[in-house]
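Reposting from the mailing list since nobody answered there.

I have sequence plus structure tokens for a pair of proteins and want to know whether others read the tokens the same way I do. The first protein:
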Amino acid sequence: MGSDRLSRCVRTSPAHYSTWHVPAHPAYCPQSLQNAVLKPVWVPLDLRFGMTRQFELFVSHNALGAPLAVGNGGLCVGTSHYCHKAYNNLNVGGQYSFVKDSGFELSGLLAAEFKQFSPDTLFAIDLGVGFKYVIPRFSAKVTPRIGVGVYNRGTGNQENVGIPVQMALQATPRIAPFVDTGIFGPTRQFSGTYQFPLGLGADLLVVHGFDLGAELMFPTLGHGTAVTEKTTDFRTAMLFAVWRNP
């Protein structure tokens, strides 16, 4: 049995299954914050429940489908300098598969996104579509989505767009290297504020239904002119475990 990275990490519709995705990522900011390794550590738990072959419910902590390794979501472990709150965001949503044919899959997505609970509650509704293509030993997925701010819009909680892209290669029966990337930013002044992350990682099938993996992420490898961070100033490393119950 090969690694499930090809089917798991890029799937857009469920079989009857539940998944617990437990990543933890230490952040490293070498130039802007000296001695900042492990300050903070995020644990953005990702839960997915296949209700039918077409419909999936999920609970997640990544904004607009951004790669989990970007961080800034879920449980935050660190001092108040790095973590405003220990837990300060949540996404709850569903995804429905409309088409599955010869390796191609098309789905629709709807989610309630609590961007933060404190100091001001920022709430948005996310709408998106998922496209997945799978051939032997390779798969790719892109999920364009838009988030529309519906509460506290005056604080900057307005429209944002995200286009996450995931690609995976089944290198061996147990190992699947993968790439996480995409483009994200507010629709207003997008050309100056977009961010382009790039993550490289690998997934190891330990036993059927259980994976371990790691990923190195550059959250702002590319960005608009209004983004002040340098491309390699901020980077994160993610260690993750995945359990699936068919």
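The second protein, same order (residues first, tokens after):
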Amino acid sequence: MYEEDRSKYFDELEEQRISYEEKIKKIEEERDLWKSEALKWQERAHKLEEEIEALRKELSSGVVPVSPKGLELFTREMSTPKQSLYECILYAFEPQLLENYLYVKRGIKSLRKLVSHFILKEPSLFKKEDLDGKIPEEYIKIVEDDNHPGGKAELLAFSHFYKCGIWKIESDRDNFVTEYIARGKYERMIFLIQSKQKGENKFSLMVGTHSRDKNPREDIRCFSTADNYVRNKVFNIIQESRLELENFFTMSGE
């Protein structure tokens, strides 16, 4: 009798063990299923984070998606030739500073210091001809002179600092020369038009708008480097303006 009871007891224990193992196996299978689903959702969440970050980067970069429909391109003129390059850069990247003359003055001074900093700290960015044949220590003294209008070295420094390609378009009665200034691959670009005014170089900024009254607050200042439509349209507008100027001088006999 004792042996039978003992055998029955161990059989019951074995049945319970098997029952528990089956339950554990079933729970483990369900757990693994949820883990797999969780991993999928985690991967999806990670992709969404990347999309959000890309959109934030695009928004902060100032690149506005441009629709050709209704887009008008025109130049924003700056106040004084000798400061016009710096004013264009402020208008393109620091427009909030243009609301107050004192801020503009400080902004231009800060930009000059920025250029000097990059010339000294990143000399490999600049070729000798970019510095008008001078060594960096000599050129920065010229940069900090308020009468210095700026040139290739300044544009390289601004391009590097603002992570933006710069199209410099030299256009006057006799010339039409385009130059893309950048030491890296950037997602945005601006257009600077260089002309002569009383023998001095003057810069203006090409902007876009969908606003009928050309409200400066709605200006599109930076464009995507992939936007060939805008680039070609800018070149065509400047070419047409140059030809009109040439025809004017021809008709006036100058």
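Reply #1 (J.P.):
I read it the same way you do. Residues 1-61 form one domain.
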